[in-house]
Design a protein that fits this description.
The protein is mainly β and about 150 residues long. The protein is about 10% helix and about 45% strand. The protein has one domain.
Length: about 150
């Protein structure tokens, strides 16, 4: 499954998140998961999608979810943020173009990691951006957010 047109990615520190038992297709109110205020990840419009691949394991279907995106420029604050997203577990609420919200990650299970790399094109018309990707492996997908 490939969802193009991701509108927003909000994140919360997973250390403040409760991890109630949820199963595929459940809908949850984010206030039941965490009391923290979300932070929005600022990415280049139309650079973000969500890809989901399922494979069978001994414990059921394992969903490998990747969310590639680009951040404009090469500001050190962007690298600091991406590094923090890796060092401290976070949960993510991803909103698609149909305003459907998906919950990814949890406090104890299904940790989300961010890979990133920079592009520094030296040509006069070249661009500077950070290419990043959130990766989550989960036995629970989708979990919807109200």
């Amino acid at each position: 499954m490939n969802l193009t047109g991701i509108l927003s990615i909000d994140f919360y520190k997973a250390s403040t998140a409760l991890t109630p038992y949820l199963k595929n297709g459940d809908t949850v109110n984010i206030s039941e998961i965490t009391s923290e205020i979300s932070t929005s990840l600022q990415f280049i419009p139309d650079s973000c999608s969500m890809n989901v691949k399922a494979k069978q394991s001994d414990h059921g279907s394992l969903f490998n979810i990747s969310i590639p995106f680009k951040i404009e420029g090469n500001a050190s604050s962007s690298y600091i943020l991406l590094d923090q997203l890796n060092r401290i577990p976070h949960i993510y609420v991803v909103t698609d173009k149909n305003n459907i919200k998906y919950l990814l990650g949890s406090k104890d299970l299904e940790l989300a990691f961010v890979d990133y790399d920079s592009k520094n094109d030296a040509s006069p018309k070249g661009g500077r951006s950070i290419t990043a990707q959130i990766n989550v492996s989960s036995f629970r997908f989708p979990i919807y957010v109200q």
